[in-house]
Amino acid sequence: MNNKTKALPRERYRSFLEHQDRAIGSFLEIGAPGVWDCAPGNGSASGDDPPRGECSGENGPHLTDLPLAVKDNIAVEGYHLTCGSPMLQSLKAPYTATAVEKLVEAGALVVGKTNMDEFGMGSSTSNTPLGTTVNPWDHSRVAGGSSGGSAAAVAHQLVPVALGSDTGGSVRQPAAFCGVYGLKPTYGAVSRFGLTAYASSLETIGILGSRLDELEAVFRVIRGEDARDQTSRAWPRGDDEGEGSRDDAPPGTIGVLQGELGLSPGMEKSYRATQEALTDLGYRLEPVTLTTLDYTVPAYYTIAAAEASANLARYNGIRYGHRPVFAENPGELMSSARSEALGEEVKLRILLGTFVLRSGFQDQFYLRAQKIRTLIAGELDRVYQGVQALLMPVFPCQAFLRDQEEGMDSFRQKVADRFTCTANLAGLPALAFPAGVQDGLPAGMQLMGPAFSEERLCRVARDLSAVFPLQFPGTSRSFSEWRQGSDAARGGS
Amino acid sequence: MYQSFIGLEIHVQLQTKTKVFCDCPVTFGDEPNTRVCPVCMGYPGVLPALNGEAITLGYLLARALNCRLSPVSSFDRKNYFYPDLPKNYQITQYYQPLGRDGFIDLEFRKKKKRVRIHQVHLEEDAGKMIHAGDMSLLDYNRAGTPLLEIVTEPDLEIGEEAELLLQELRRIVQYLQVSDGNMEEGSLRCDANVSVNHRGEGLGQKVEIKNLNSSRFVRKALTWEIARHQEILDRGGTVTQETRLWNENRDQTESMRSKERAHDYRYFPEPDLPPFRADQPFLEGLEERLVELPAARRARFREQWGFSASQVDFLCDQKSTADFFEAVVAAGGAPDQALFWLAGDVRKLLKRSGGDLLTSPLTPQRLAELLDLLARGRIHGKIAKQTLEQVFLEDRDPSAIIHERGWKQLSSREELLPVLERVLEENPLPVEELRQGATRPLGFLMGKVMKATGGRAEPAAARTLLQELIEAPRRVSSVQVLSFGGAIAGTRREDGMIEPGDLVSLAELFQADPELPDSILFEELRLGRFLSEEITPADWATLLVRIAGTLDQGGVQGIVIAHGTDTLAYTASLVHWFFADTPVPIVLTAGEGPPGEGSRGESGENLRRAVLCAASGSAGIHVVYGDTDFLPLNLKFERVDSGGGNSFRTWNPEELLRSGSSLAPVARGVEQEELTRCLEEVLGQTCIVRVYPGMRGDILVTLMEAGIRCFVLEIFDRGTASLREGPFSLRNALIQGRERGVLFFCTSQQEGVVDFSGYVTAHALWREGAVPMGRLTTESAFTRLVTAQVEVLCEGEARSRDAWRERVLALMED
Ligand SMILES: [Zn+2]
């Protein structure tokens, strides 16, 4: 195969990234071109074993030279794995996540690691001292979170696709804030091996992208069963084609979430516009109310915090990560390491999780949350008997201000997760898509569907893209634009 | 009276190739932190992937422990911070263990017990933290090793039972190849919970004991801890609920200094692992992997071959030994011979070479071949031993070795004739005596023949040919008569007293006996001139070595031992414990006076019957007295009727046998000097105490201080003996004995079966470690105890006091 003519000029691309990212701070680390595709298989640590994951070979190396940014809580050998935390600031990933391994095998290039809220805990990418990421549309506003770095990098045209992770909306909310597509796959559809755990039963690796076909191509590569993640599941056979080709698929029925949604005026407008667009495209809309909606956030935070309290217990400064200068004994070493190197939001959630798991209190908190979770899944099951997908907002408002005072406090940020965390509690796929620009900021909506309906969600979003074409912020430049510009500048001087 | 409750939490390291949730190899003794990967080191982003073999082995063991198997078992996180736990939570099974409600059956000191298993679950091991000076070092090689935790109900009562349970569990896991079961290397670990309360008042305050890394420590720690609780309760105090550590240097448990907070492990379901479903094919697969378990195999061996408890314990302790034994039998080896050789010479050679049966050059076929050559008289015992040694050295078949070395016995006329002719030529005088009808020179000439052939002449063939050449009166049967002191060999002085002497010439005695067949050839050996109450360890050693030599050499029809009456019960049972497997009759007899006096129990008549029995009787040990052929065990010399006649009587004759397997396969192979030394040592530390009302318990303590390590306590058949508080209580002596590792065996003063199941005091005796000897009389129990100790000494393996104690106890089990 002769790809030489098309080959990405890596050094130039790196200059492009370094130059363009200065304004928005989406990357924590931009890799030397040498590590972009050498992470899996070639490293010494993972050399002995062939990857155990499902091989992406069926699709061939069709992602050749696709630049890819990866959220810094996903392991890529050759890069750091900071998870946005001072605790892991010095940690180099000793292995590569299955999803990344598959992408690199398919030809993609991991150009760098993107910023995030510490351990994925936050909705702004401000809960980290490791870097400052701004919204490319308005630098005084947040990029959303926790996959804010990945969303900003895609919106700023630094990369066409980026990997993020979605525990309660962490892919979709920043996608909506930055005006790009954000897919949260079905739980188990993509291996979590290599994704630093925050809330294991809720989270999944997700994809952010500026073009649906690339996003889908990446999804097809990374999905599938992985022996290293026993909660992963094989992609059901024939589900891609089962509903026929796009052209002759009859417009389906889409549910529209009703009720007191508490949307900002801009979001309200956008939500209505999306419904109109769908009707215009021939979809039949059904009003849907979710009786469990008010319970999703408490249930979500109870479960997430509980799992986080155990998942984050491993960071004790002994085997890797931050270690205090001095400790009297191993116990003191662990507690100093943790008190010094974990952020306030992280500590809050760990304590919350420890609290809800106490013996004697599990019935009241953790087990009750699990019951609510079952009810939510049951209710959605019934909803999907009548509709093919469910339309709802991603977040009650557009990107908020970075300023602590004028922005959104951390409690209101949590309450605002009500639309996104439903999909995580039920383990269902959801796709955030741009639904126009309101007052100079993107407004994002999401489609949620039954398990393994990712392709269907993408089809509806593709239809909608005719009405809401993806827009980039005015200050962003694509690589070719930048290259031409900089070549011209160079030529001119 | 107190009641104690012991429950165990046992961790079994599973024998998988890789760790339970990652691909790191499971090994022992590697460089620290070389068997680790991101998964078992708890790096960010890694996930556990359940090892299918680990869960299979887990289910297999749960199945073998008779558990109810969970159709679905799931994993949970147990949260606690400890430096050696990489994730600071342990993946274990809390809500849905793989098995529940099982049991394991034990038999300890003749008491059967079913210990219930609460649950069996799979979990991961932690690493190891080593404190070195002011540093703490961590090795994570062990982190993630699959562990199976077995939790028993508090059904155990004493430390010995807990020890036994661990030993049986060790056998089970080894049989199933689930684990190597090695406690010293930590493959089998145990924590114990113990509580003591007044009888009938339920569980007391629970204390947990940790750091028990051998089954012996489990026993010692529990014994110590129960005594501590009893002392506290005696004083009216209450036991503090706490965790204690066993200090093996100080032989005591100690409160853990660091105040352990009540842990809240905050268990919750492990979200990274889906539940495991034990479906039908999986369960069927388990059945295929089940093997006959040690208990079943021991029972079958007893049933099938009639072996004793200690013999089946030996054969079935390691599956490889039991398999080997059965393979030998399948290849044609006689079961009792196979056992005899495995327990004796094979064990000795394995110990010398430091190997084990599986990897040694000895195959079942080779041992069977050797036994066959021996049985067919192609070689004799001594050659067989040499050959076996060569098999170990050369890794070749016995027949090849024998052929090459020319060790085959000379049995054909052509082979023997030249040798015999030369011997006759060189020894004209004995030949002449023989022709005159004397019998003694035959032994002398046979000795010459043996010497001339390097011990290779087949005795029976050589003897027959010798008689033919000499043209001596034709005799077919050869009986060896051993004169072992007593009145039967004594002479009556003029004052009527009997003084020790030599047995009269049997040839003379029986010269005119019309009933005695002509064909019996006597070979008389004088082993000593003494009265039977004067027997010393050296005398017994002489007798035992002589019998062993004769049996080894073969060629005799039977052996007669002429003995005094008073101590015959001891010697007869001693000979039984040593030689119960004899292929020819060994007949003991006695008389109350020198032969020819014509009284009841007349020596001459007894001797005559004994010789007849030896010449044509069945294999096994016989005691011939008057017109009765007694069993060698449980003899009591008594005044039987008012007529003034004395005779023997057998106590509890039911189920007693005159033949069986030898208790001392090793001891009977040693030289006379060595055996004498062993017997002297053993008899110096063993004593019989007849318990009587008003006996002070501290008499026993005094005896212990004087070096007594084994007691036969003659009590009553229901085991009653004073255990009440005070100076007359035996309890204190028993407790002190336990601490010193002294052994107590109980026999009855009446004709009765000692059984501890009926009386409370008997149960207390049992709890304090006394072993009921069942139907055995004091004499038989005593000689068994002597034999067992001699065997243990000759085995030379039991270096520690504990090991010695265990081995002796094992040989006393029946
Ligand atoms: Zn490992």
Mind explaining what this structure looks like?
The complex is a heterodimer of chains A (493) and B (814). Chain A has helices at 10-21, 98-105, 148-155, 172-178, 212-222, 265-280, 293-311, 330-341, 344-356, 366-386, 410-415, 421-426, 454-465, 479-492; strands at 27-30, 67-71, 109-114, 161-166, 181-184, 204-209, 253-257, 284-288, 389-393, 430-438, 441-448. With 493 residues, chain A is α/β, with parallel strands linked by helices. Chain A has an 11-stranded mixed beta sheet with strand order 1-3-2-4-6-5-10-11-9-7-8, sandwiched between helices. Chain A starts with 9 loop residues before the first helix and ends with a helix. The model of chain A is unreliable at 1-5, 39-59 and 241-250 (pLDDT under 50). Chain B folds into 5 domains: 2-269, no CATH class; 298-405, no CATH class; 413-464, Arc Repressor Mutant, subunit A, CATH 1.10.10.410; 475-650, Rossmann fold; 671-812, Rossmann fold. Chain B has a 9-stranded mixed beta sheet with strand order 2-6-7-10-1-11-12-13-14. In chain B, helix 24 (778-795) packs across helix 25. The longest helix of chain B has 20 residues, at 215-234. Chain B is globular. The A-B interface holds A 45, 49, 73-75, 81, 83, 88, 91, 93-95, 97, 192-197, 200-201, 227-231, 306-307, 309-310, 313-316, 318-320, 329-331, 333-334, 354, 357-359, 362, 366 and B 23, 38, 41-50, 77, 79, 81, 83, 86-89, 129, 136, 138, 140, 264-268, 271-274. The site of zinc ion has 8 residues of chain B, from loops.
